[in-house]
Amino acid sequence: MRLLVVEDDPDLSRQLVAALSEAGYVVDAASDGEEGHFLGDTEPYDAVVLDLGLPVLDGVSVLEKWRRDGRTMPVLILTARDRWTDKVAGIDAGADDYVAKPFHMEEVLARLRALLRRASGHASSELSCGTLELDTRSAKVTVAGSAVKLTSLEYRLLAYLMHHQGKIVSRTELTEHLYDQDFDRDSNTVEVFIGRLRKKLGADFIQTKRGLGYRLADPGAP
Ligand code: CA
């Protein structure tokens, strides 16, 4: 899953990017509202962490512009602790949730997990597909109860497919959600990682739809 952090405080931005990367997300960062708006407008993020007090263009305006242009990704806003009016303005502008500063990183992570799973229609933080299970809190994967060790890229790929299971996901879409904006993208590498995942999980979970992409499904389902 690929996230955007829009935060002008360099220390806080660094902490957020580090914690989110550590949690297995691909993260891009912007330090003002204009850059943040541009990235959110042009790149396909799975969720955004948006500070409201931003230089050049404030967070509420950024969010209003995205929503007006039909950008529907979940947005978690960061608000000043005692400014309830900020929360109201942010939620009215289209925010899905908020965290007040100063916050515990664990709370941001938990709220993002909730936004991501709701956006993909899942109610629990444990995603399953037949005997394949992925716990989005611990980033652990098991098949029939046995732990499967994945690299961070394999995990990201599987997490994206698990959040979109049953749907056909194109190679381009996967590439866009697996790498940050600066990565030299080569969609052939996705094929390589799909191959490795199949080796580790068993071949049947990920189907290839020729010319269209991949589909994760329970091989035991009728
Ligand atoms: Ca700020």
Explain what you see:
The model has no long low-confidence stretch (mean pLDDT 93). Strand 8 and strand 9 form a beta hairpin. Strands 2-1-3-4-5 form a five-stranded parallel sheet, with helices on both faces. The chain has a four-stranded antiparallel sheet with strand order 6-7-8-9, with helices on one face. It has 222 residues and is of the alpha/beta class. The protein is built from eight helices and twelve strands. It folds into two domains: 2-119, Rossmann fold; 126-216, Winged helix-like DNA-binding domain superfamily/Winged helix DNA-binding domain (Arc Repressor Mutant, subunit A), CATH 1.10.10. It starts with a strand and ends in a 6-residue tail after the last strand. The radius of gyration is 18 Å and the shape is elongated. It has helices at residues 10-22, 33-42, 59-68, 84-92, 105-119, 152-163, 171-178, 188-201; strands at residues 2-6, 26-30, 47-51, 75-80, 97-101, 126-129, 132-135, 140-143, 146-148, 168-169, 206-209, 213-216. Calcium ion (CA) binds at residues 8-9, 51, 53-54.
Brief overview, please?
The protein is α/β, with parallel strands linked by helices and 222 residues long.
